[in-house]
Amino acid sequence: MGSSMLQRFKSMVSELQSNPAIELTQSTFKPPATAGELDQARETFKLTPAMVDFYSECNGITIKWERATGKEIPEGGLAAGSIDLRPVQEVFGDWEDEIYTDEDDQYAPLHPVDFFVPEACAALYLDGSPDPEVYYHYLGEDMRRMGVNFEGYLELLLKSRGFWYWQRAVAKPPNTKRGLMISIEEQNFRKVMPELFPDFRDSDFKKLS
Question: How many CA atoms lie within 13 A of 158 on its CB side?
């Protein structure tokens, strides 16, 4: 039997702690979701088996890291990571006035799973699908498909170690007359990750066309 998601995230933390190029600044694992908290979430959505497995082990994870002091940072680049997996009752709760408003409800189907920075998140798009897709969302401005479900997002989160804005490396690019535009965040991610993590495989992060 393979390792659980919780075990894999804890192994990732141990790896970060042993990496001389990394300084781990926060690592918090919340207790398992209670039956009541899972039932509260089910009032909004019938949880998938992957969701039940994850939240039954750990109802939220926060991990933050940065490049160790004294380590060279590429010009114009940032070497840091942030993961903020929210508790299940929050994920499937009401996000009015945080994600959408009465006046503008286009983002109402989004339910943030990972609020990795205050201004952006990765969110489930509840459109009636029994296994909804995760979207990258820059609050109030941008919403793009990532081509993965909840379990797929966690897999990429482990591989990326929560690197700053890695989500932009796989999210469907915005429409532009100039063709495919590669963001600064994506360029930084693909350049810096191999410097920090020798096992990084660029091919694991395929941009959604």
Answer: 16
Domain span including residue 82: 5-69+78-163
Say which range, 3-7, 68-72, 115-119, 157-161, has the weakest mean pLDDT: 68-72
Half-sphere exposure of 64 (CA within 13 A, CB side): 7
Q: What's the rounded Cα separation, in Å, for the pair 57 and 180?
A: 40
Phi, psi of 199 (to 5 degrees): -85, 5
Q: For the chain, what is the largest distance between any 2 Cα atoms, rounded to a whole number of angstroms?
A: 51
Does residue 191 belong to any structural domain of this protein?
no
53 domain-assigned: yes
Determine if the pTM surpasses 0.90: yes
What whole-number distance in Å separates Cα of residue 71 and Cα of residue 36? 46
- Mapped onto helix, strand or coil, the DSSP state of residue 154 is helix
